[in-house]
Design goal:
The chain is α/β, with parallel strands linked by helices. The chain has 14 helices and eight strands.
C-alpha cells in the first residue's frame, strides 16, 4: 500500500492501475514536493514485484466529509468547476491521532475536537463526531498555517506582486514558498529544536508567530464546529515540543483549556489539568492507517 498525498476526489484505498496512476499524475502540480516522488516509488515497486497487487491511499481521504462551507472556496464558479477547492491533507496522521485518543477516551467521537498536526508540514483540523468538517490546508499542502519552510496562507496579492517582480517565473516563486517560507523565511531555518533556545530576535519572532498562528487556527476551527471538547497535538513539533504546546495553550485559556505543566513536560499522552477540555499529545502511526486501508481495499 502506497501513501499518496493528493487524491483529488478519490477516497479510500484503490488499486494502482493505469487509470488511477494517470489521475494522480494530473494532481502532481498541486503537491509538487510529494506526489511525483511517491508515484515514482509506487511504479518502481510495481515493476520490482509485478506479481503483487499495489494499492494507494490518500491523505485527502480523511477530509471527504468537509462541510460545504469549508470545501467551497470564495472564487468564481468556473474556477470551482476546475476542481479548485479545499481538499485538506495530513489525513493519515489525523486518522491515526484520532485512533490513539479513542483508545483512551471514546468520548472524542461525540462532539467537537480540534487536531493540530505540527511537523515538517503543519495543519489544523476540526473534527465533529469523529469526522473532519474543516481544515486549514486547502487546494495544496502550501496553504493554512506556516510551517518550518512553507509560508502558509498569504494575501493573494503577495503572489501577484512577486510574480511581477520576478518576471512571472512561477517555478521560482513556488520553490521559495515551499522551501524558504515559514519559520525559515523569518529565522533562516525552520528547526524548532534550535529556534526555541535561540535568543536572537529573529528566532524569537519565528516561534512567536508560529504559536500565535496555530492558536488562532485552533480557535477558528472550534468556531466552525461550535465548540471544543478535545485538543490533540501530533507531529514532530506537536508531539515533542512541550514548550510549543504550552505557548499555544496559554493563548487559548479563554476557551477553558488548561495544561498540567508536569504532565506536559514529562511527555504524557493526556496533558490537561482535568478542569476543562481534554488536551492530548500523541505519536501517530501512518503505516497502520495504510495497513487498515489495505484491509478494506482487499
Amino acid at each position: 500500500m502506497h501513501r499518496i498525498v493528493h487524491g483529488g476526489n478519490l477516497c479510500g484505498g484503490h488499486e494502482l492501475d493505469a487509470a488511477i496512476s494517470a489521475e494522480l499524475e494530473a494532481l502532481a502540480p498541486l503537491a509538487p514536493l510529494h506526489q511525483p516522488a511517491a508515484l515514482t516509488v509506487a511504479r518502481a515497486a510495481g515493476r520490482r514485484w509485478p506479481q503483487s497487487r499495489h494499492g494507494v491511499a490518500f491523505d485527502t481521504s480523511f477530509h471527504a466529509s468537509l462541510a460545504p462551507w469549508s470545501r467551497r472556496l470564495p472564487i468564481p464558479t468556473d474556477w470551482d468547476a476546475l476542481g479548485v477547492r479545499r481538499y485538506g491533507f495530513h489525513g493519515l496522521a489525523f486518522a491515526s491521532a484520532l485512533r490513539e485518543v479513542v483508545a483512551q477516551d471514546a468520548t472524542i467521537l461525540h462532539g467537537p475536537a480540534v487536531f493540530a498536526h505540527l511537523g515538517g508540514g503543519c495543519s489544523v483540523c476540526a473534527v465533529k463526531d469523529g469526522v473532519s468538517r474543516d481544515t486549514t490546508m486547502s487546494l495544496t499542502p502550501l496553504g493554512g498555517v506556516p510551517g518550518p519552510t512553507r509560508s502558509g496562507d498569504l494575501d493573494p496579492g503577495v503572489l501577484l506582486y512577486m510574480l511581477r517582480q520576478n518576471g512571472g517565473d512561477v517555478n521560482a516563486t513556488e520553490r521559495r514558498l515551499f522551501h524558504a517560507g515559514g519559520l525559515a523565511g523569518i529565522a533562516g531555518h525552520g528547526d524548532m529544536r534550535v529556534l526555541l533556545p535561540d535568543s536572537e530576535p529573529s528566532a524569537q519572532l519565528a516561534v512567536e508567530l508560529f504559536t500565535v498562528r496555530i492558536a488562532q487556527s485552533i480557535a477558528a476551527m472550534a468556531t466552525g464546529i461550535n465548540g471544543l471538547n478535545h485538543l490533540v497535538f501530533s507531529g514532530g513539533i506537536g508531539h515533542r515540543a512541550a514548550l510549543v504546546r504550552a505557548q499555544i495553550v496559554a493563548r487559548l485559556e479563554w476557551l477553558g483549556l488548561a495544561l498540567d505543566t508536569d504532565l506536559n513536560n514529562a511527555g504524557a499522552t493526556r496533558i490537561d489539568a482535568r478542569t476543562g477540555p481534554g488536551i492530548w499529545s500523541v505519536a501517530v502511526d501512518e503505516e497502520r492507517e495504510l495497513a487498515e486501508s489495505a484491509l478494506v481495499w482487499l
